Amino acid sequence: MRSTRRSRVNLESPASRLERHIANALLWISFIVGLAIFSTMLFSHGNTFSIVEPIVRLFAPHASAHTLAVVHSVARKMGHFFIPTVAFWALVLGPLRDRPITALLTCAAFACVDETFQTFSPGRNGSILDVMLDTFGALLGFFVHVAIQRWRVTANCAKCE
């Protein structure tokens, strides 16, 4: 019996394949560095405070400056946890589909690059705690992704029986 599947001939030379991989890596690195620079400017302390303060004032109009500072600090740390969770999902459902470990490593690399840029930005400081929070947020996304994938496999196996 003859197979209906066509074989694909790879006409790409090893050198051009290597060049393509290097170009892809450089594009990813450029994207991560650009995003880190953008996030360093966008999510500065003053910018996030201008978002948090009106929300707190809406629910607690007479909140003290100390309360505002505490809520703002908690909101910033929660952002360091949940934004990488969403970033992981954006990667694993988009350009890094079926490559969750690569998506996780990309999020961790971004956390390191972002905090490094903050170290050299005026009025900002990089923090290893923020890198850890970012990485743990991406890990949360990773573990939820793995759990969903396993659930899908067991659900499909149950249908087969």
Q: Could you say which structural class the secondary elements and strand pairing correspond to?
A: mainly alpha
Strand content: under 5%
Low-confidence spans: pLDDT under 50, at least 5 residues? none
Tally of separate domains: 1
What general outline do the C-alpha atoms trace?
Answer: flat
Order of helices and strands: HHHHH
* Cα distance spanning the termini: 30 Å
Radius of gyration: 22 Å
Total helical elements = 5
Q: Based on DSSP secondary structure assignment, what is the total number of beta strands?
A: 0
Overall pLDDT confidence: 83
Largest sheet data = none
- How much helical structure, as a percent, in the residues? over 70%
Keywords:
flat; 161 residues; mainly alpha; single chain
Write a brief structural summary:
By secondary structure, this protein is an all-alpha fold. The protein has five helices and no strands.
Structure, explained:
- With 161 residues, the protein is mainly α.
- It has one domain.
- It contains five helices and no strands.
- The longest helix has 33 residues, at 128-160.
- The chain is flat and about 70 Å long.
- The two termini are 30 Å apart.
- The model has no long low-confidence stretch (mean pLDDT 83).
List the helices and strands and how they pair.
Layout: H1 14-42, H2 45-59, H3 65-93, H4 100-119, H5 128-160
Helix pairs in contact: 1-4, 2-3, 3-4, 3-5, 4-5
